[in-house]
Amino acid sequence: MWFEQLLFFIAGIGALAGALGVVLLRNPFYSVLSLVGHLLALAVLFLLLHAEFLAAGQVVVYAGAVMVLYLFVVAYIGGSDEPLRPESGAIGVFGPLFAAAVGAELCIAFIASGLKALDTQGADLGAGFGAPAAIGELLLTTFLVAFEAASFLLLVAAVGAVVLARRRRGLEEEGPAVGPRSDLPTDTMEVRA
Amino acid sequence: MSATSYGWLVLAFPLAGLLVTSLGWRVLPGRTAGWIASGAILGSFLASLGALVQVQDLPREERHAVDSIWTYAATGDFDVEVGIFVDPLAVFMCLVVSGVSFLIHVYSISYVSGDHGFARFFAYLNYFVFSMLLLVLAGNFILLIVGWAFVGAASYLLISFWYRRDTATHAGIKAFVMNVIGDVGLVIAAFLILNETGQLDYLGVFERAPEVFAQNDGTIVATCLLLLVGAFAKSAQLPLHTWLPDAMEGPTPVSALIHAATMVTAGVYLIARTFPLFELAPTAADIGAIIGTATLVFAATVALVQTDLKRVIAYSTMSQIGYMVLGVSVAAYSAGLFHLMTHAFFKALLFMGAGSVIGAMAGIQDMDRMGGFRKAMPFTFVTFTIGALALAAFPFTSGFFSKDEVLAYTINRGGGYVVLALAGYFGAALTGFYAFRMVFRVFGGEPVPEAKELEGGHAAHGEPMNPMTGEPEDTDVGFPGPEHNVAESSPPMKFAMAPLAFLALVAGVVGIPGVTDTLEHFLEPTFESSRYIDDHPSAGAEWVGLAAGGIISVASIYVAYVFFVRRRGITLELRDRFPKVHAFLFHKWYFDELYDAVFVRPTATAGAFGRRVVETDFVQGFIVGGTTGIVRAGTSFARAIQTGFLRAYALLLLLGVAGLVLYFLLASS
Amino acid sequence: MDVVWFLVLSAFIFVIGAAGVMTRRNPLVVLLCLELMLNAGNLALVGFSRMHGNEAGQIFALIVMVIAACEVVIGLGIIVAMYRNRLPIDVDEMSELRG
Q1: Are C22 and B654 within 8 A, CB to CB?
Q2: How far apart are CA B235 and CA B281, in angstroms?
Q3: Which domain holds residue A146?
Q4: B427 neighbors B296 (Cβ within 8 angstroms)
Q5: What residues does each domain of chain C span?
Q6: Which DSSP state fits A13?
Q7: Contact across the interface for A94 and B651, Cβ inside 8 Å
Q8: Is residue A193 part of a domain?
């Protein structure tokens, strides 16, 4: 059991660190990498919760495919280093404030004694809990509609992405100067520290 | 055909003429519109003759016919019909109206030729005749009010016929507003009648009235006074008379037709028609008689000093209608109506002659600039003088018999009425004087340049201008056309004036007391329920009155002769010696100024106040602006949220989530 | 392990993601923070699934992952289109939908 707790703390700290990294790092490339780390930590947490298939899916799909896509786009666009200044105005004050408020509320909700409904150890699990077989069976029987809908959604998203990002002849206007920077070579991925 | 069929025909002809000329004015060439309109009125006149014959065939005790083509409203207690009532009085009025109208239409064909609005003029004239006939033939008070209102509208349209003249449009508005005052009186009177008797058609009302009203009952007096208000507004009696002189802004045929022969006599017709009501309210009848006499004298005094030719004739009209009102108010119905008929003849004739003179003067109406036209315009001179003789009640002209008959009947009533009759004789004296003042000033003396030009063979041409203000105009749409027509050179005008001159001389033959009382006899069936029907002066008494009137008339003409022919300039001396009197009379006893101060200024101030404070500040600024301001303030608050910033929206979302979670937290604890 | 710990962790991650959405100006990073929030949700779902012994939570989390993927695809497509049209890559500049 102590092993689990240790693993939990390590993965938890990793997840939090990754999250903070996403938010606080100025270079978007670093933020993406930070998120990848966060996702891996989350996969470990899934394993701790006996969700093996989901953990695998997280690593393969999320960290492996989605984040790679993200990396490509970040490389293409580059993204400027945002100036390191505190956010001015109401957003800078109230944003974190409200977020903290929500966080506090949630923690109170989870921890406070009023929520005795939470059985903290969890139910007894069967042997194949979280295994691909169980997930697959559920997907194809009880949750078939959701499954099919999700696949349809994937199709629509793919088509939409192609439509959005294709070049249209003659429709590109001159915009403000924040665009591809002419002094950078555009065919190599240059990462600047 | 029955009498009522002829009655409908009488109405149908002018209506058809109106439709043809108004709808086809673009396609009718030249003066066709004029001939069509005149033909329509001729048809109406012939139908009136037919109605006359048919009515005479009815039995004497029940000499009336009622017919209706449509029931406008059928309520439980009474029906409102579109129906006519044909009896001797109606037929008499139809004949006078359509006959004189026909002649004036023919006169207008020449007078208004060359005007851009030629067809429009005849459309309006036909509309007017239709309305007047509708008023006269109406069989119930509703249709009477409809005809009454239409006639007022026609008067407005015709007075402001040359609509681009400011003076004309102002005069039209003035006439219309004062007519509306009369309309209101008439409508309220009709309502009172309906309220008390429960009927609106003449036969029903006149039957019920003696049962419902006691003699001099408050309500019936009030009703009759309101009827008098209507009558006085339409007939230009005191105090609702100020519109008539201004109405001379209209073309001369309009003045001849509406403001001499027909529309202004509608009030007299009204009093005669509703005589059962007036006989139930002697107080109201007496008030009518007094006001008629007062107007008579007032108008005669004002006519003494006016210099505009048409205005002298207008005041003379006002004065003569005073005689008619006096006549029908003292129950001398046939006498009053006889004077109505003869007045139509000679007054229309006078206006036509005046139109001819004004044509020769190239639009100038100021008598101070006229003189000596007798050689240049002999036909006009003769006809005008005939008209003036009839107006002055010169012995054996038609006016002589009619006017003095009215006065004889008035004396016959005795008591205070004798005073009214004496005032009437005084007015007659003034009438003779000012009538021949006109004749001698216009046709006597040395010829003015325009007259000399006319003798030379062509009418004078002046700059087109407004005769009242002298400002120049052009002869385009909305202004008088370029042609000035004189009777001598225009056959239609001669054709119209000659019969009128003839009638002005001999029409008295229908009312010679003791010898022929054709008219009285003819009208008797209408008035036989009057309690004064047998109360008329003896033939001897009448001849005495006639003699007195004749003497006064001749004397006044002689005085005029002295003043204006023998000792010219004496009037100027009189004017210089009595400047205040002259000013008082010249400004028409300051009635216009009085009304301006009492009614017009306060209304204008109230209107300006209303526009400035109520409309602009209050409604526009406060209510409308306030409402939009509130909405704007409210929405600007909502708009502040729609900043377009993604992050602000995210913030708000998060705020909402926090709130929700808080709620659930609190709800479950 | 108390499931509560996992839930608290998920709350923290969610909050960090929310703060990131509100404070960062680069739309790419905003999308990343969105991913954080989604993942936090996933963690909570899996935690509850463990608690109830019911795999429905895991299925739900799987579907959420699919949705997240689709959303990322479209979002990135939009950003690429923005880049192509020479628009500034800054959420504060994209503020034309305003009242």
Answers
A1: yes
A2: 21
A3: 127-168
A4: yes
A5: 3-84
A6: H
A7: yes
A8: no
A contacts of B641 (beta carbons < 8 Å): none
DSSP string, B587-611: TGGGHHHHHIIIIIHHHHHHHHHII
Domain total of chain A: 2
Q: What is the CATH number of domain C3-84?
A: 1.10.287.3510
The CATH number assigned to the domain holding A66 equals 1.20.120.1200
DSSP characters for B208-263?
HHHHH--TT-HHHHHHHHHHHHHHHHHHT-TTS-THHHHGGGS-HHHHHIIIIISG
CB-nearest to B650 from C22, C25, C95 is C22
Dist. CA B113–CA A158, nearest whole Å = 87
Q: Which letter does DSSP use for residue A172 in this model?
A: P
Instruction: Count the Cβ atoms, other than its own, within 10 Å of residue B598.
Output: 10
Chain A within 8 Å of B668 (Cβ-Cβ)? yes
B223-282: pLDDT as tens digits: 999 999 999 999 989 889 999 999 998 899 999 988 777 888 899 999 999 999 998 889
Task: Mark yes or no for CB contact A102/B647 under 8 Å.
Answer: no
Q: Residue C54: exposed, middle, or buried by beta-carbon count in 10 A (0-12, 13-18, 19+)?
A: middle
Nearest to B151 by CA among B69, B265, B253: B265
Tokens of B554: 């001749």
* Per-residue DSSP letter, C98: -
> Is A139 found in the same domain as A62?
no
Residue A95 lies in a domain: no
Q: Per the confidence metrics, is the pTM higher than 0.95?
A: no
| ipTM summary value | 0.91
A77 & A136 share domain:
no
Q: Which residue has the tokens 């088509």?
A: A159
The verdict on residue A94 lying in a domain is no
CA distance B532 to B328: 11
Tokens of A46: 């899934």
Asked if residue A183 belongs to a domain, the reply is: no
Residue written as token pair 């209408």: B526
Give residue-wise pLDDT tens across range B15-72: 999 999 999 888 888 788 889 999 999 999 999 999 999 888 888 888 888 888 888 8
Give the Cα separation of B121 and A93 in Å (integer): 84
Portion 79-108 of A in contact with B at CB < 8 A: 90-91, 94-95, 98-99, 101-102, 105-106, 108
